[in-house]
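From the thread on structure requests for the teaching lab: each student submitted one protein with a one-line request. Submission from student K.M.:

"Model FAD-binding protein from Amycolatopsis rhabdoformis, tokens only."
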Amino acid sequence: MSAQGPDLVVAGAGGGLIAALRAAQLGLDVLVVEASEHFLRGNNTAMCTAMVPGVNSRWQREQGIEDSVEVFAGDVDRKTKGSGDQRLARALAAVSGELVEWLADEAGLEISLMTDMHYPGHSVDRCHTIPERHGSVLIDHLARQARAHSRIDFLVPARLTEVELDAEGRVAAVVVTDPNADSERIETPAVLLATNGYGADPELVAEHMPEIATATYHGSETSRGDALRIGSRLGAATAFLDAYQGHGALAAKSSTLLGWATIMHGAVMLDTTGRRFAKETTGYSEFGPSLAARPEATGWVVFDRRVHELCMPFTDFRQTVESGAEVWADDARALAVATGLPEEALTAELDESARAARGEIPDRFGRDYEAPLEPPYAAVKVVPALFHTQGGLVVDGSARVVDGDDRPIPGLYASGGAAAGISGHGASGYLAGNGLLPAFGLAYLAATAVAAEHRAAGSDTTA
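Reply posted by the TA:
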């Protein structure tokens, strides 16, 4: 680390690790400040399904999949009903193919294109992942790479509490390593706020997204709105504070993610009356508040042996199975007994959905099916969840935080849940990967921009 301090301070060792690795690759000295000692298992990156959308990646080209910035931006526009940030969506789409190739070639991850299931809202297959399809493996790898790099230092546990800017544009990160000790002031040209959103702050959640406030929070305990408060004190613009990723399939017994692959392969969701209540394939995020509004805020996802086997590649699903959350029954009547759901309603729903899957009748909610469910049946009791917020500080296409007049605040960057994302308002605009793409993509863009400014400053000095 240089005598005058790091070239970049990254607050948050989730997606922020991408910025650290990219900046170090470009010759910068980086300090990563992380609030939790347990970040390898406790942050949102560690809890995700490790899917990063990549537009026009080499894996897409190898399979003849045509994708573009325009196609991705159109998908965001449709999913958000026209409310998504198109400037940011296009900037992320433009860098996303490069990003996933960098994850493979420079970060050393085993990346592949997911084609065995198709997530709601994506018009083409563009979600890239790792074999385990789980964020814990992803972050373990990134953390090892970062800790081994000579240009990257870690300060853990430590909390970034303030970013100071003086009249000359000099930047300082204020860090607390011990609540009972004085804070430390670290001078640096740039700070990246990668501390996620405010899902762990019940008051902010109740204020901005009351429909999901009573649901289970399934995210990092350090997502307390630090970036939102720090940026706001510096005059940053904020947007989409009501936006979030919800989920309708958190296993009640184990608090593990059942996963929406069950639904996309043909499962149905019933509420406690034994009835379906919405088009399941619209998306897992909007099913969070939908399920929260049902009787007892509880549901059952019903599937069969075929769906079970197709979902086994997902670590989250395997963990749910290993927890004993699955209930199996030979027929609908036995499933009603095992779940406690009304037999008549459950039987009618399974019969109707199977007929719709076979094309004998239209589905009353308008969904399509991969195949009809056949006995024996499995069911998992699920509850709604809040995973992370999607609103925050407004950033430009280089991840620079801007003020109300869209002017960049010197030296301040934001990524992931700290930034206002591309999911529009509420839960329904969330596309699979809208968490990791802004987390990784904005971090990558921020590091690239800081490195460019560093080079420009060096040129000015030597001129």
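TA comment: The domain at 246-386 is CATH 3.90.700.10 (Flavocytochrome C3; Chain A, domain 1). The chain has a mean pLDDT of 95.
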